[in-house]
Design brief:
Number of domains: 1
Structural class: alpha+beta
Largest sheet: 4 strands, mixed
Order of helices and strands: HHEEHEEEHEEEHEEEE
Shape: elongated
Radius of gyration: 34 Å
Helix content: 25-40%
Number of helices: 5
Strand order of the largest sheet: 5-4-3-6
Length: 252
């Protein structure tokens, strides 16, 4: 009878040793599953961090490539201007301080051409009706006019074709006529005290986001026989410089 009970318990798996063995195997299997889960979670976290880093890098790379392409476009236009007029476009040279203001320059008007009313001395962009008096040209650019200007739009020479994002107003139309500059298509970060806006003459948030191309023709530091042209772009809390005197992206 005892032998039969023992055989029956072993056959049905109800003996105490077998139950302990099965429970131990179950605990081992459960513990192994938790380890696997932790490993999977760790791998997912690692992949997520890599994806975020790669996405950030790809975004910065695309931004830099776009600015570099714009830089080459402007350089080509400036060289074509020189071939036509025999000199580079004027920069914003301040006679009183003998310093060039590289930010507020007249590249936009010189490279696209300005229509002038000779009787009044008022200038305007090709596709604008609002005029800019010579007094305002002097106020913004320290010049009394533009070289590439004429009375007949058909006679004007345009050296560059621009997208809307490449030309930006830096004046408030409620106070002054619309003054435009050649702009980098990467806006300046707003409301960051670490990076004061390049154009800070207005409280208009749109104007404070404008990021003009910097240009120096008078005694340029880096290209003595030519001109300095560069863009400044904020990346990761630093200002990066993309310029015509180095193939590398520089820190300011």
């Amino acid at each position: 009878m005892i032998l039969f009970q023992t055989i029956f318990e072993e056959w049905t798996g109800s003996s105490e040793p077998r139950r302990r063995q099965q429970f131990a195997r179950m605990r081992h299997r459960l513990a192994f599953t938790l380890i696997e889960l932790l490993v999977v979670i760790s791998i997912i976290a690692l992949l997520a961090s890599l994806i975020v880093g790669l996405a950030r890098y790809a975004g910065q790379s695309n931004k830099r490539s776009r600015v570099q392409a714009e830089l080459n476009q402007v350089i080509t236009a400036i060289e074509a201007y020189k071939a036509h007029f025999g000199h580079y476009p004027p920069d914003n040279f301040v006679p009183s301080s003998k310093i060039v203001n590289p930010v507020t320059n007249q590249l936009f008007y010189e490279l696209t051409g300005a229509i002038v009313d000779e009787s009044s001395g008022v200038f305007r962009a090709r596709d604008r009706q609002q005029g800019i008096s010579s007094a305002f040209v002097m106020t913004y650019f320290n010049r009394d006019g533009f070289v590439n200007a004429g009375t007949n739009p058909k006679e004007l020479k345009s050296f560059i074709s621009l997208k809307a994002s490449q030309r930006r107003a830096i004046s408030s139309q409620s106070l002054d006529p619309e003054i435009e500059v050649l702009a980098v298509t990467v806006d300046w970060p707003p409301n960051d005290p670490r990076f004061p806006p390049p154009v800070n003459s207005s409280a208009d948030p749109q104007i404070r986001r404008v990021n003009p191309w910097r240009y120096v023709k008078t005694n340029p530091t880096n290209n003595p026989d030519g001109f300095d042209l560069w863009a400044e772009v904020v990346e990761g809390g630093k200002i990066k410089v993309i310029c015509n005197w180095s193939k590398d992206v520089l820190d300011r």
